[in-house]
Amino acid sequence: MMERRRMDAALLVLFLVHLATALEVPLDLPQPPTITHQSPKDYIIDPRENIIIHCEAKGKPHPSFSWTRNGTHFDIDQDPNVTMKPHSGTLVVDISRAKAEQYECVYQCTARNKHGTAVSNNIVVRQSRSPLWSKEKIKPIVVQEGVSLVLPCRPPAGLPPPIIFWMDNNFQRLPQSRRVSQSLNGDLYFSNVLREDSRNDYICYARFPYTQTIQQKQPITVKVLNQDPADERKPTFLIPSGPSSSKMVLRGQVLEMECIAEGLPTPEISWTKNSGDLPADRTSYLHYQKTLRIVNVSESDAGDYRCTARNEFGSVYHTIHVMVKAAPYWISGAPRNLVLAPGEDGVLTCRASGTPKPSVTWAMNGIPIENSPKDLSRKVEDDTIIFSVVQTGSSAVYQCNVSNDYGYLLSNAFVNVLSEPPRVLTQANKVYQVIKNHRALLDCASFGSPIPKITWFKDSRSSTLDGDPYIHHDNGTLEIHVAQAHNSGKYTCVAGNTLGIYENHVYLEVKDPTRILKQPDYKQVQRGRSVVFECKVTYDPSLQPTVTWLKDDGELPDDERLIVGFDSLTINDVTENDAGVYTCIMNTTLDNDSARAELTVVERPDPPTDLELTDKKKRSVQLTWTPGDEHNSPIQKFLIQYEDSLHHRGHWHNLTEVPGTKTTAHLKLSPYVPYIFRVLALNSVGFSHPSFPSRMFKTEPAAPDENPTGVHGFGTEHDNLVISWKPLTGLQSNGPGLHYKVMWRQKLMESDWTKVTVANNSKFVVSGTPTFVPYELKVQAVNDYGAGPEPAIAHGYSGEDLPVAAPENVQAVLLNSTLSEVHWDPVPSKSIRGHLKGYKVYYWRERSLHKHNPHHVEKQILTFSGNRTHGMLPGLHPFSLYSFNVRVYNGKGDGPPSPDQQFETPEGVPGAPTSLVVTNTNLDTLTLEWNPPHDRNGHITGYTLKYQPVNNSNELGPVEELALPANATSFTLLNLKYSTRYKFYLNAKTVRGAGLAISQEAVTIMDEGNTQTPHSIARSPPRRPSHKARPVSPFGNVSSSSGEDGTLISWEYWGPEKNIYVEYIVKNSEGEEEWQKELVNGSQNVMLKGLKGGLSYRVRLVAKGHHDQPLHRSEELLVLVPAVTSRQVDIATQGWFIGLMCAIALLILILLIICFIQRNKGGKYPVKEKEDAHTDPEFQPMKDDDCTFGEYSDNEDHKPLKGSRTPSNGTVKRDDSDDSLVDYGEGGDGQFNEDGSFIGQYSGKSASRETAEGHESSEAPSPINAMNSLNSFV
What we know:
Mean pLDDT: 83
Strand content: 35-45%
Helix content: under 10%
Domain Fibronectin type-III: 607-702, 704-801, 806-908, 912-1008, 1031-1124
Pfam family, one: Ig_3
Signal peptide: 1-22
Structural class: mainly beta
Protein name: Neuronal cell adhesion molecule-like
Organism: Sander lucioperca
Shape: extended
Largest sheet: 6 strands, mixed
Number of strands: 95
Number of helices: 7
């Protein structure tokens, strides 16, 4: 029962210890030493450098250090070459005055203070060694081809062992393969030797990693003979020997097993495990399957492994028995420090395993525990020490040593007895940021003895945070498994034990995740073009993301062609090196998101190479080639072309195509052709460049395989027969001396064939044949090697002649007034004397049956193809007399006409009257005058007149209709409404009905006593010639005037239409040019600003009424737009002008200096009176009072010539006379016609001139103006 309670207590203490594992004793509290850093157990040093043996520890108070060497105390002060670092136990051995060999010992460090002692591992110090190869003379090795061979390396033993490799004299690694490979011990094995293995520079190298030195063995010479080569044989193992072997490996290390076999042909090696499968994730094969490598070996890897060598003559296997041993290793970790309050219980556990099972020993403060002072509160039970009701002063460091035959483990763990109120070690007010839906961990690292209890609160601290979604960890951390936005806020952790409480505040911010919305897409792009990868992202606004692009999981190349934007990557001028996988990574301080896409760079394939011709036959050959690089786009097909250097030198012809998966083609060829082939490859981008041409392959000549096609017979004259054909090409000739055998005979006559041999031509003419006789024709190809196959018979006719007979029984049948049908009997075939093409009807209108119409004799022809016996004559004129005849025609021409015959067409409806005008317009009457229709098409039986009013909205009123006699040509309408627009319709009638109507519009005159209009019309409309009546125009008094702003058009209008336009066009413009139009509704004037100066325009006004009403236009007005004075070419860049300006500037400067001197003297300009009396027109005096230039005298001698530049202010001042016709200046209206006569209006002085005159009375112009004035006259 007591034992059970002790065990329960031990388990409870073990649980408490587990809770305390995260406790870290603050360094300001008393504590035993803890070793924090030490050198490795097996410490290999470089003999060229100082020896540094590390030993660092912490504790309160800070520990002191001592060392043992080979198990005895090491007095550091007695060795001048050894020093210890301050505040540390690390030893530094200065080997400049001593050899490293004397310090190759076993060292152990001890760190102690008043609370305990900690010890380090036993540190075995050994120096690295790289001994030289022993000098030896290696004899050349001579072997027969096919036997096996082993070249030994046997490097000198080094520490650590060297790395072995074989190279030649040029420091190039010797190639290895399934046949030749290096073993684990460095020897070079040949499963069988070949002639090419002969060489004199097989050199084994050993690289020693610590000293970074390389040692070289003497070169080995190998000579392979083939006098008596070895026979082919089944495999046998070179290593290991025998049917089985064994191997021991330690747990956690690397297991390497090798099997190298000889045989001919070279055997293949395979591996299996007898008792199970090989661990795929830890297994790899080296040296072409000859070495099996298993990393991180565990006990499960023990067992039997079988390697099998196999070739076509048999197989052999070897079994390797693997044993796994284990140096000691921790099961649940090394013992952990204990911090206990007085009166508490605790447990130290040192639980480890190994093969064989290790032993466990304990020590306290470096002294075996059995030799340590007795302590009733401590009990040792194998690998566990149990502490009960500890007291102050029981602090100590306990050492646990676990060892077996293969190693040991040494661990320090202290027991520290303290009474300490709680403290929170986590930083106060720390802000934790976490991504939404991720785990949030809020730390509350604390320390206290007894161990504090941790309680968490949020915001108002209304309740503790227990249950979902909160998880409390033993180390005080609060976990929120899936953080949401509402979890953000202030958190408080409270640590409390029996000695007090301590609280700390932290803050949690839950952020939105970073997500890539648009991932980059797979791209396939042609070389030289550009590509853009998009990577659009969303992220929390408080987190600034950074974008990183990777190529093939590495950094982007440093290339200016790659442009990285915030959400895109652009690659310009893509090359093949740009192909790969591009990864977009969006990083924030909390999370990241990534997406990747592949870029494939495609290009036209490289041309095929290595064209070779095989299997050569008379009419075929096999062509093979090697495809070029397809540049990431599979080859779809190959195009094979040939050049015929005999018949078409320099021209390549397509021969055939083969799929892209093939690299050979069987080509069918023609005889007597010197072929040269080339191949092109096609992928999705396009065709490659052609390959280099193949060698020439010339086929043997042979007789033609075919005859000419397209054999025809026809005549060009009435007594000949032309036989034509399509000649054979050079490729079809099959041999030299190509000619043709032409044969013919009359059809239906059993006569012999007439034969003739024709040179390489395409036709033959047979003379003296009867007219239009059928013939049978044959053309056969012949060359120097024989004739072609029997030709097929073609048919033809000898030459045609004009027909000799006319159609008979010709007659016409009238269908209506405009259509007639003509009938005839066909002409006999013998009279046609050729191929019947058809019949032609010649017909013409003799005259109209109306007495007023003239005669018509223009003939028309209608052609009816084929063997026709009738035809229609459409489009006839009614009431007319027609004549006609019929002729047959063949390929030669027309035959004789049939006798002329006549027929009369009946009456039809008439055309519209030729004119309709309105005259004698009054208040309520007007007169209509018209002329009869031009096409009466019968006897006119009368006229119909219709009319109706039209209001201001262009709406039509009721229609009135009148019947008028046939002989009427005018009619006066009475009782009409005044000031009203009317629309009139007039048409003529025959016995067949009414014809088309002619329409017109007119307006009755206003009643001046009863009507007031905005624009009173006190005058009659514009005068018209009395003999020619027209519709009344609603426009009057149209005039124009020109100004600086444009040309003003004015008019008066009294019509009802509201859509008024002004139209204008350049006078004498071509017919294709359109009138320009401006809408001017509601106004009676418009300013035209688009007219060009110096041109004459035709201007008119247009009133548009209802859509079926005619337009009303005013009389055209001729407007001349004044020209703007032209400018000469700028002379400011001319040399002479620059020189003149410099001279004037110098003169002005001199005058200014003189003026300045005179003012200082108080006098006047001495020549003032003289210049007033006699003014020089080329010199401007200066005013006395302000030293400015006086006014320029512009007399008649200095007026600008025609075409000269105007002054810069745009005016030239006239003299006082009024004889001038025009003011020179901008905006003048005067113009001249082409003959030099003056047109236009006199204009007043321009504003610019008035301004200039105003300056006359105020002050003189400045010197700059003077120069400008002078410039205008130059």
